[in-house]
Amino acid sequence: MDPTGKTSVFGMGPSVLCPALSSSVFRTNLKRQQRELYQRTWETVKRTTRKGQSADGVTIIPVLQRTLHYECIVLVKQFRPPLGGYCLEFPAGLIDDNESPEAAALRELEEETGYKGDVAEWSPAVGMDPGLSNCTTHIVTVTINGDEAENVRPKPKPGEVYGSNFLTKE
Predict the structure, then answer these.
(1) What residues does 93 pair with on adjacent strands?
(2) pTM
(3) I need a labelling partner for 101 at 20 to 30 A (CA). Which of 37, 53, 138, 149 fits?
């Protein structure tokens, strides 16, 4: 019961596989009786693949450091069907089974940008869009030594992203 003495109903509507997303995501309608005596419906997305990891994925803040240059933040350009266009975003990806967040961050950074770096720090699991989904991520800061030979002309894995972009930290 809520403080007004009325019974709150928290029910889940039918879980329907959302065809626009991977098979690991379900769309659910949630209905909850509000105190104001009206019913409200939320559409939610639920990731169903987390097995023992502390979070679903990692979001990487890659800091490119080069001698005699400003530090830069590396972003990737990716097509996002829900938005119908390209977005500049931090490199990110899912944590594989039996993989640590640090290892996942370094793997995803190399796959998406070609850069190799060192983990400086990482956050506890945080919600990515808690008003819509149960997806969680660790935010991982990775420093990249741009003077190392392997980072002078990095090459992302084919098909991963459409290019890297840089934001100068001033």
Answers:
(1) 58
(2) 0.73
(3) 149
Give residue-wise pLDDT tens across range 93-141.
999 988 999 999 999 999 999 999 999 999 999 998 888 888 999 999 9
Report the b/e string of 32-66 with b at 16+ CB within 10 A. ebeeeeeeeeeebebbeebeebebbbbbbbbbbbe
| CA geometry: angle 104, 141, 25, nearest 5 deg | 45
CB 72 within 8 A of CB 169: yes
Where are the alpha helices (H) located in the chain, listed in sequence order?
Answer: 101-113
* Tokens 């990775």 belong to residue: 142
Determine how many CB atoms are found less than 10 A away from the CB of residue 158.
Answer: 5
Sign of CA dihedral 159, 161, 163, 166: negative
DSSP alpha helix (H) spans, 9-114: 101-113
Nearest to residue 133, comparing CAs of 58, 51, 30?
A: 30
3-class DSSP state of 122? strand
